Amino acid sequence: MSDFRIVPLGPDDGEEVAAVWRDARVAGHPLGPAAWRAWWASTVADPALAWGARDPRGRLLGFLLARAPARPWAPQDLGHVALFAVAETERGHGVGAALWDAAAAALRARGRRRVRLGAEPERLLPGVPLTAPEATWRFLRARGVCPGGLEADLWLDLADGAIDGRSLPAGAELVDDDPAAALAFVERAFPGRWSDEVARAAAAGAAVLGLRRAGVTLGFCLAQRPTDAAPGPALTWTALGPWGPLDPRVGGLGPLGIDAAARGGGLGLALVAAAARWLRARGPRAAVIDWTTLTAFYGRLGARAWRAYQRAEGEL
Q1: What pLDDT digit, counting tens, does each position of 12-28 carry?
Q2: Is residue 32 included in any domain, yes or no?
Q3: Residue from 126, 83, 81, 118 nearest 103 by CA
Q4: Most exposed of 29, 90, 101, 311 (fewest Cβ within 10 Å)?
Q5: Contacts within 8 Å (CB) and 24+ apart, 229-234
Q6: Residues 119 and 194 placed together within one structural domain of the fold
Q7: Could you tell me if 65 and 132 lie in one domain?
Q8: Is residue 194 situated within a structural domain?
Q9: Which one has a higher pLDDT value, 36 or 50?
Q10: What are the CA-CA distances from residue 236 to residues 34, 56, 77, 199, 290 (Å)?
C-alpha cells in the first residue's frame, strides 16, 4: 500500500483534481477547474463528502466526491458517488479502496443504505462512462455495485441547414417571455425532480421555453446558452466536441416535455425543432441533449449519440 492519508478537499483544489482526472484518462469528459468550482457552488454540495488521498509530499493521488441529497423527491436511503478517480500510477495500492471506505462510512452515517454512481441532483455524470476501464468495473463489483441500464448524451447539429424544418401546428407558438407560466406547467405536469431542477436552472439564468396554444401551456423545454452563469449538466463536459477542441458556441436542450393529454401527434418533435431554432438564433451552432434513453426519438431530428453511460448501484 502506498504511503498516503485521506484528507478533505475544498473549492480551491480544482487544478490538482483536474490533473488527477486527466491522468485517470476518462475519455470524452474533460474536467477543468471551472466544473469543480461549479460543483462547489451547487446547492447540494457537501464539504464533508469530498476527500482526496495525498502522499507525504502533499501530492494528490486520487479523489472522491459524494452526495447525500435532501430533496422531497429523492429516496432518503440513497447516496451518490458523483466523481471518483485515482491517478493511473497509483492504482492497485489501496488509494481507491480508502477513498471508497471513507465515502461509504460517511453516507451510512447520514442514513444512506444504497449508493449510486452519478445521477445525483445537479449531477456531473448520469452514470459510469462506457469509456471507463475494466478495472473500474472490477473495483465496483467487488463492492457489490451492479451495472444497470444505458444512458446517452446526444449531439444535435445546429449549423445552417442542419436543423429539422418541421413546424409547430397551427395556433401553437414557442414563447420565452413568460417563464413563470412555463415553470407552473412543469410543476403541474412533471412534479418532483424535473420541476425542482428546472426551477433551479431558471434561477441560475437558463431559459424555460413554453409551448402555448390558445393561451394554454402544453409543453416546455429548458434551453441553456453558453453565456448562462451556471452551465448545468448539459454543458459541463463540452470543452471537447465530437471532433476535438470545441467551438465555444454550444448550448443545451432539455429536459422537455408535453402535457399527457396532448401527446401522440408529433408535438414533442416539433417542440424540439422549435427549441433548436430558438437556440440557434442566439448563437450556438450545436446543442447537447444530456442523459436520455430516447435516442431513436431525438434521432428523427438528426441528434446522434455522443457519449454513453451505464447506471450502477449497490448496497452500502
Answers
A1: 898 999 899 888 777 67
A2: yes
A3: 81
A4: 101
A5: 229/204, 229/205, 230/38, 230/41, 230/201, 230/204, 230/205, 230/206, 231/38, 232/201, 232/204, 232/206, 233/122, 233/123, 233/124, 233/126, 233/290, 233/291, 234/153, 234/287, 234/288, 234/289, 234/290
A6: no
A7: yes
A8: yes
A9: 50
A10: 9, 32, 27, 19, 10
Whether 148 is in a domain gets the answer no
Domain that holds residue 116: 5-143
User: Is position 301 within any domain?
Assistant: yes
AA identity, residue 154: L
Considering the entire predicted model, what is its pTM?
Answer: 0.91
Q: Which residues are CB-neighbours of 23 under 8 A, at least 6 positions away?
A: 87, 88, 89
Block residue for cell numbers 405536469: 189
Amino acid at 150: L
Q: What 3-state DSSP class applies to 97?
A: helix
Are 190 and 139 found together in one domain?
no
Domain limit, last residue, from 143, 174, 189: 143
d(CA 265, CA 218): 13
Distance CA 135, CA 141 (A): 10
Same domain, 139 and 162: no
Cell of 258: 408535453
Q: What is the CATH number of the domain that holds 260?
A: 3.40.630.30
d(C-alpha 246, C-alpha 229), whole Å: 19
Residues 6+ positions from 281 with CB-CB distance below 8 Å: none
Residue type at 293 in one-letter notation: T
The length of the chain in residues reads 316
Tell me which of 110, 143, 176 is where a domain ends. 143
Query: How many whole angstroms separate alpha carbon 215 and alpha carbon 201?
Result: 24
In the chain, % helix, strand, coil (3-state, to 5) comes to 30, 30, 40
pLDDT in tens, 294-312: 999 999 999 999 999 999 9
DSSP result, 44-64: T--GGGEEEEE-TT--EEEEE
Total tally of structural domains belonging to the chain: 2
